[in-house]
DNA sequence: CTGAAAGCGCTTACAG
DNA sequence: CTGAAAGCGCTTACAG
């Protein structure tokens, strides 16, 4: 039963009294093998404790059964949700996931990309770091390895993209705040170099224009995507001469920090100050008051990216796709 | 610059005017290569757009640069934290992580283990599903592939284990509740088949015995590890004739559900009913009132497991280790 | 279904 | 450092 030395397919074949080619067909689940032969081989595999070497098989057949996934930061539940969606979908089609996290570092991303290419992944799902170059993407594509960009576009890169309508999301959020009577609305947090920030800001602008409200640039402050940054930014914005009556946060993580600090200051979100987040992470509903936010359907987004990548790997040659999910305003208690 | 066909090491060698063996030494960073030769080869690699094929190299040299990681559920921040710790540590030593999630399904775990073995991982970190058999572990070990068990022991399996002192954790939690004057303390949630549940329950028992309080079996209800389960269980336990005045939750996820429901019922955790959780997930501090809990140092636990696995892979042959982290009571606002 | 041969891209081992 | 050969474990292609 237990076997200490490495068992190869040839040994299995000998044990079963068939040829190596036949054994190979059996492990790959070929149709043109008689039931009797299949059973003989499977029994030998059991008896010898044989493990199929997918790595060797991939080398010979020039195929791959792995997919690289590069995201920013597991600590943000938004990415966990994304990962869940991707992982579920990819596992369904027999792909194994190689994981990498960049923590927003360009160098880390470069290193991860190299590592994954060296491991001969069949494709890559990339949540790109700010400042990513389209040349890098194009180069990978030119090697025949499909790339699906997730959440953030890379300007100039002509490849598949799955993301959401951030402009619309920003607009929905700010429309709602305006409709609730707010006129001075801050936009807090997030790095302004990335497209999703720019797009949400665009939505913020659009909503103001539509309502005929002038934008006060001092109400827009960027920052890293952490709770700490939220804590910091809300203090900063409340110190200005004419502070905002409501805040649109770049995402829920920022909103978490903002709310923590507000409660500490004795202010009640939703009563004393309006707040809208972005992403609808599971935590949003656990806060009190519950966070009003824009859902970005992270799991679905992940699943879509996985499906798209899988189609590419299967060689369905179509034009680069752009899948843009529509955001949804989830009104809860903070506005 | 850009290259459409697969470039091999032999082509690089020819381009650089050296032998294949020399080129191989360069890509592996060997010391006994002159600086001039190294530069020539590196230039050719650049010019041709060569990608080192780690898969082929691993096949030939019978080594591996990947590690398999099997956990339950990414949606629980406890596992995200674990993953962060593991991932950071493993990346440091040049290992690539292959990820799998079981969602508590034995079959899924079996499938993931097979897949990882077929991918020739150098080792496996396993957060074992309830009901895992020690034979399976022993078999993998017998193939020379180290396994580190994380968080949950598998009875009978003689291999490395990194976890925490759950008995002590349970005891700390319940000691604290007793010291705060509670006498009827519920233990809610978690699957009783897994060792960590049994150990926390043991701690619960110990604290009661130490204080000379009888245990009322009707105060202990198990259940799945979800917020929904927390919501359900707190309702159930408050309906009994003589309800508890405090609750020790199997973990913070359960506590989250419990607190949500209590607040909905108009009860204030910490004032009307005492609550202690387990794990100290980042959310614990974001709740209001903030959750008193037992920290299980997830990131550290992950890092320790990764280091241990790495040592094993390096072939440091020592007795199977048991690393048991000490839990810590974090007193906040719910008790 | 079998059998013998070649090859995937690399490393190993060795004589020079 | 070079060069030629063998081999890691598999698949491919083909004649039988």
TrEMBL record, chains A, B:
Q: Which domain of life is it from?
A: Bacteria
Coiled-coil residue windows: none
**Keyword S-adenosyl-L-methionine attached:** no
Among Pfam families, the record links this protein to: LacI (PF00356), Peripla_BP_3 (PF13377)
Task: Using the record's annotation, list all stretches that form the HTH lacI-type domain.
Answer: 7-61
Gene Ontology MF terms: DNA binding
Give the protein name, as stated in the record.
Answer: LacI family DNA-binding transcriptional regulator
Source organism (scientific name) = Pelosinus baikalensis
């Amino acid at each position: 039963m237990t076997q200490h030395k490495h068992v190869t397919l040839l040994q299995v074949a000998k044990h079963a009294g068939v040829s190596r080619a036949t054994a190979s067909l059996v492990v790959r689940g070929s149709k043109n093998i008689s039931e009797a032969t299949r059973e003989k081989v499977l029994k030998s595999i059991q008896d010898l404790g044989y493990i199929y070497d997918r790595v060797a098989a991939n080398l010979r057949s020039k195929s791959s059964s792995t997919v690289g996934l590069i995201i920013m930061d597991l600590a943000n539940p938004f990415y966990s949700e994304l990962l869940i969606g991707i992982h579920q979908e990819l596992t369904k089609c027999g792909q194994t996931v190689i994981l990498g996290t960049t923590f927003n570092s360009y160098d880390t991303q470069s290193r991860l990309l190299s590592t994954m290419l060296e491991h001969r992944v069949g494709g890559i799902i990339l949540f790109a770091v700010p400042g990513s170059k389209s040349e890098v993407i194009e180069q990978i594509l030119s090697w025949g390895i499909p790339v699906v960009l997730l959440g953030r576009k890379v300007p100039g890169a002509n490849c598949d993209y799955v993301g959401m309508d951030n402009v619309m999301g920003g607009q929905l959020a700010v429309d709602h705040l305006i409709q609730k009577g707010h006129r001075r609305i801050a936009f807090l947090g997030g790095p302004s170099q990335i497209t999703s920030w720019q797009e949400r800001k665009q939505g913020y602008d659009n909503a103001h224009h539509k309502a005929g409200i002038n934008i006060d640039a001092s109400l827009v402050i960027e920052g890293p995507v952490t709770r700490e940054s939220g804590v910091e930014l809300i203090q900063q914005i409340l110190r200005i001469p004419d502070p905002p009556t409501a805040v649109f946060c770049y995402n829920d993580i920022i909103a978490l920090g903002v709310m923590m600090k507000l409660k500490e200051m004795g202010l009640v979100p939703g009563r004393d100050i309006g707040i809208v987040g972005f992403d609808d992470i599971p935590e949003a509903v656990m806060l009190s008051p519950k966070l009003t936010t824009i859902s970005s359907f992270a799991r679905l987004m992940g699943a879509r990216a996985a499906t798209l990548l899988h189609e590419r790997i299967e060689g369905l040659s179509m034009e680069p796709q752009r899948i843009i999910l529509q955001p949804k305003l989830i009104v809860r208690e903070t506005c």
